[in-house]
Amino acid sequence: KWSERKVTIFTPMSDQQETGPTMRRLSQLESVVLWNRARQIKRELKQGVKKPYREVIDISWGDPQGGGIKPLSFVRQVLAACHYPQLLNSDKLPEDVRQRAERLLKECAGRSTGSYTATQGIPYIVKGISEFITRRDGGVPSFPNNIYISSGSQWSLQVPTSLILIISSFFFTGVLTPVPCYDKVNMSIRELGGVTIPYYLHEDQGWELQIEELNRALESAKGVCNPVALYVMNPGNPTGSLPQRRSSFSWLMSEFVSYKKVLAEMGPPISETVELASFHSASKGLIGECGLRGGYVELVNVDPAVMEYIYKLFSTDSCASVPGQIALNLMTHPPQPGDPSYSLYNEVIMTITQLMRVFEVLNSVPGFSCQPVEGGGFAFPRLHLPLNAIHKAKEAGMQPDEFYCVRLLEESGLLVNPGWNFEQKEGTSHFRMNIMIKEETLEGVLRRLVSFHTKFMKEFS
Amino acid sequence: KWSERKVTIFTPMSDQQETGPTMRRLSQLESVVLWNRARQIKRELKQGVKKPYREVIDISWGDPQGGGIKPLSFVRQVLAACHYPQLLNSDKLPEDVRQRAERLLKECAGRSTGSYTATQGIPYIVKGISEFITRRDGGVPSFPNNIYISSGSQWSLQVPTSLILIISSFFFTGVLTPVPCYDKVNMSIRELGGVTIPYYLHEDQGWELQIEELNRALESAKGVCNPVALYVMNPGNPTGSLPQRRSSFSWLMSEFVSYKKVLAEMGPPISETVELASFHSASKGLIGECGLRGGYVELVNVDPAVMEYIYKLFSTDSCASVPGQIALNLMTHPPQPGDPSYSLYNEVIMTITQLMRVFEVLNSVPGFSCQPVEGGGFAFPRLHLPLNAIHKAKEAGMQPDEFYCVRLLEESGLLVNPGWNFEQKEGTSHFRMNIMIKEETLEGVLRRLVSFHTKFMKEFS
Fold first, then answer.
1. What transmembrane ranges does the database entry give (chains A, B) (predicted)?
2. Shortest Cα–Cα distance, A63 to chain B (Å)
3. Low-confidence ranges of chain A (pLDDT < 50)
4. Residue contact B83–A76, C-beta within 8 A
């Protein structure tokens, strides 16, 4: 009943950071020290311990609402009405809110957000997403059957990944991932048994992805694993950079370019054969609803037999959270001009001036340099640390930027995310900071940062 | 940098139902025919096609709200207020609703349900769950550090499973799973590369789990895989049965017995060494909030190093949906006597009379037999089909109970779930029906069922 076959397993012998393919079952945990200390400091402040600051500002995450940004009223009113439809009878809610909630409830089994949905998501919402994508890409068609809603794009990311890994079965399967990169991407691929092959983004060129570097990375995988997929982030996390079209080099506030649109424009055979899995989530952009957990993936050029298998993988979970699905509908179909909720929805959360301000400040202080932030909610400044500081960090058993961040937290109450967590280029130091925060808070953040930094550089120079 | 080792891989040579260990990468999909036909019939009814019924009643899922049961007002009011805190200023919401929403918002970063939470869940809610478990088990302590909230218990089930499979690395790892069993359990284990070892519940003894049968199953795994875990459902799905303590054989309306409590009462060394992962979710019980996606797992006697690894596995997803987490809080801490929402919360959704009624009807009609339903929301009656019907099914390329269910749908508009999907004992036929539905609907369901069944039995006898 069972057939036997012999295979060869490769296992990595060291657990160090590599420039070549990396397979680690047990990923390094983020610098626990830093976040543990932050929790401790918060407790101490509560207990009345005197510090040079009254509260810890945590900008180590990309969590706009956690950072004090108010959720969009339209989104919250629709959610409240969907959960508790008695609210539909009150005229306290704007007309378009009530209409939208009515429409969405009509699509829920038993008119309730408490019912399971289809595996792909509520068909009406899935169809709306495909319309949104078609609009975004200037008419390049998107088909509802290729779209899956999940509880956040993190979850759905695991499906094609595990698929890739299963298809290539007993070989080691490689995925090209950028450096620096949001750590959970590498973690997910490795936990699922895959190998990550780092390619380095070119910091001095605004974190650009370069063909030569991709070739080097591919070369490095030879004899170790079988590279089958390329992972790109758009905009980059932590870098906040947007991919450039070869023709356009106007960096600041570049236009969002959809990879799917580019693929379509390349024409056959490429446009009809290259497989693409494209992720988006309600945690991103102006809506920033991280806690509701709603994301989707669109799959392009995937073989029908594989699509059937993907359906099965998604059905191992019941369905995505209905509040998350509703958030996706509101994100892809915001109020239109003339709707009662239009003006409130379009209050600009973060002004371009605010972005420019961060860029300006971080480039005017010695020891900092920062590539322009073009999208997303993060800045990823580089730290040019004195040798003394680097030695001190080594003595303390920390990475240089981790050491810097621990001191920053300790002395100024500012919590940022060390670049080390994003697998940056060996010998460089950075940190990631969430800049999607209230304008008043941002000013305070920049003040604390510059004042600490100046002191720190003086101490170690 | 890489070390090589040779291992032997076993792969199953057939994809048929087995009584021994089963490893299938591509699980059989549920009887698609049936659900496709149901969709079609719904469309036809909309288009005005004449049928002997006006609408399809879908009781193939365990989805109380999809089945017309109203959500609990307390739950929905708290959710609405948490999403849209302006509602807290209105006196239209009961005092305890506003207090609870206030309390929960205080625990959300930025006082918003749109913020990420800690990996384990919001600490206040996690702590509340541990208190609930301690209360449920009559004082057997439960520790917050052992609890993880996830987007439904389906998701969290995958974590210990993948853990088990990873730990046992390149061996085939077996998990003992009951027959019949909710299909997604086997599917998840197999998708993750594990082997399921079926053990049969004893139908005539009220679907009891028998030691001798467990021993037989273990024996069957020898030389094929390494059995490391036992999966039990309490109450059973689809069977609706509760595990019996050896001493008590009073079947009907048995008391819920927690496996964790039993483990604790067994005393050392067993109580201190046997590892237990216990799952629960807000989709279950009276609250029945399937669409919000909130579940948790409690881990008992797991090695601290492994707990650290579990933390990492959970952190590959950002966090569970906040609405789902709130639902867990409301489920584990319902309104108390004296609270304004108490009486409304405790309106009994499904009366015991209703349960008895299903049991009575299904046992009074020839060709049906049904074990008592003791918990959960399902009945799983057995079909004693005439040989002619079994032959006819084979001709149509269907399993006997699938054939029965397709005809039931076609002729009476009733959609139930064929037992075949639950990997029942070879040669038996069943179906699962959701009985957590409105009383009026249930009467209609029983009428349609008995009338079709009588006709069907006559046709084939």
1. none
2. 6
3. 1-3, 5-18, 23-30, 167-170, 246-253
4. yes
